[in-house]
Amino acid sequence: MPMIYFFWNKNSLIRRVLHVAVGVSICILALIPATSCYNEKFTTDSTDTLAITIDTLTFDTVLTEVSTVTRYFKVFNPHDASLRISEIKITGSQASFFTLNVDGYTGESIKDIEIRPDDSIYVFVDAVIDPDQPVSISPFILEAEVEFLTNGSTQSVTLIAWGQNANYIPGPDQPNRISLLTCDFGEVTWDDPRPYVLYGTLLIDSCNLILPPGTRLYVHGGIANNQIGIYNEGLIYTLPDGKLTVNGTLDKPVIIHDDRIEPDHEGVWAGIRIGPESGPHRFSYMHLSNAIAGITADSASSVEIDHSIVSFTSGPGFFGRHAQANISNTLFYENNGQSVALTFGGQYDLAYCTMASFGNDAEALFMNNYYCSDPLCSEGALVNNLEASVRNCILVGSSTDEVWMIDAASQQGGFFNVSMQDNMVVVDELLDEDNFPEFFETICSGCFEYAFGDTLFVDMAKNDYHLDTMSIAIMKGKPISTIADDLDNKPRDPVAPDLGCYEFQE
């Protein structure tokens, strides 16, 4: 088990012993009890706190076998009076990996540790890591805090250790949580059989990062506060000359997931952000989950997604902003925002996609052609042309409108070119007079309406979005010459294919 040791500063200890010895001599000469000769003054001001040398203690662990790693930091009393630390304890869900030893005392909580003026203590931390334990017992990243309570004020030092044998980015000896990947416009392939664990932010520039079949990339989320600003970390970001290529297969998909072990929770890491003017990027046979926003494609970027699953996001599964994207044979589900949001115009082609946004009020598909610098558009809207094609898709959920569109240039015309054919949709207020009353006549030809309770999927409670034997989506599509298979690599019917990412199989 990890151990934390607190030792008095050696020089401080010597001074204290000498001071006490001199005091005792004087008391003997004066025939006065020793206890009355020294009156130590303690500050109780809540603003008088500890001076701690670091805010995070990271362990340089090499996880090939069970190992013990020791790190330390120093705690100062910078005040003119003594400080009494009321309590020192280790907190957090993974606190069991760390035990506390203060001046020879051990336990979950140690109380009443005193530091004299301008003195200090050392804090030693021992971490025992067994990388052969399963992730359910020893997660990839072990995180806890040493908490100090002094004069009613709480201070803490974060403890970070690696719990599994993996490729950590950045490495455990690099405390900077912003990593830059560059390779002089070449390629870097992450093909190690061990998983990759991103702790912080990965910037890709002048390089094509390739994730081959079977790659597992786990991302640690949280709040970052660094030179970039304050934001949700666990971010993968491509600069204009950066590229990301995901080359999974049916049998060996590329897994991009957060590093938490709880199943089916909403997103905690920031997601993949395709920066302006970058690309082309390719995501094939990828399973991405538990991000805040799955994939965000910014202005003038280029993205292709096929045979992929994007799930359990706390925001949109895919968010496009004046970008270019082709998405096919892809499943979006358990997205707490829109499954797909296409904003500020751009060029998009969606084919054979299933977007199932049940359990929230967000639309499965949202499209607009404008951007406002403030929520009320008080300074007016910037308009970009939207070119969008949506074919053979399932757009369903628990909202009364699972398709929502806004044309900010309706009076001008020519900036909103949306074509939808042979889709399963849910619409209500979208058909109002001031919205798109001729939606089925002029925009969504050959489309079918889904009513809650219609037989559609095998079992949504088990996240099985294959088509049921009685599904109303069977044989409702039209062939698309460039797409001959489904998400499972099964052939599409050449005459009357099914809607959505899965073709029904007998």
Rg from alpha-carbon coordinates = 30 Å
This entry's quaternary arrangement is single chain
- What is the total tally of β strands? 43
- What's the number of structural domains? 3
- Low-confidence parts: 1-38
Sheet with most strands? 24 strands, parallel
The best one-word shape is elongated
Question: Could you tell me how far the N terminus lies from the C terminus, measured between alpha carbons in angstroms?
Answer: 54 Å
Could you tell me the strand content as a percent range?
over 45%
Query: Roughly what is the average pLDDT, rounded to an integer?
Result: 87
Secondary structure blueprint with pairings:
Layout: E1 3-8, H1 10-30, E2 51-52, E3 56-58, E4 67-76, E5 83-91, E6 99-102, E7 105-107, E8 109-115, E9 120-129, E10 141-150, E11 153-162, E12 167-169, E13 178-181, E14 186-189, E15 196-199, E16 201-204, E17 207-211, E18 216-220, E19 222-226, E20 229-233, E21 235-238, E22 242-247, E23 254-258, E24 271-274, E25 281-284, E26 286-289, E27 295-297, E28 302-313, E29 318-335, E30 340-351, E31 354-357, E32 365-368, E33 370-372, E34 381-383, E35 386-391, E36 394-397, E37 403-406, E38 416-421, E39 424-425, H2 439-443, E40 444-445, E41 448-449, E42 457-459, E43 464-467
Parallel strand pairs: 1-6, 3-11, 12-15, 13-16, 14-17, 15-18, 16-21, 17-22, 18-23, 21-24, 22-25, 23-26, 24-27, 25-28, 26-28, 27-29, 28-29, 29-30, 29-31, 30-32, 30-35, 31-36, 32-37, 35-38, 38-40, 39-41
Antiparallel strand pairs: 1-9, 2-4, 4-9, 5-8, 5-10, 6-7, 10-11, 19-20, 33-34, 42-43
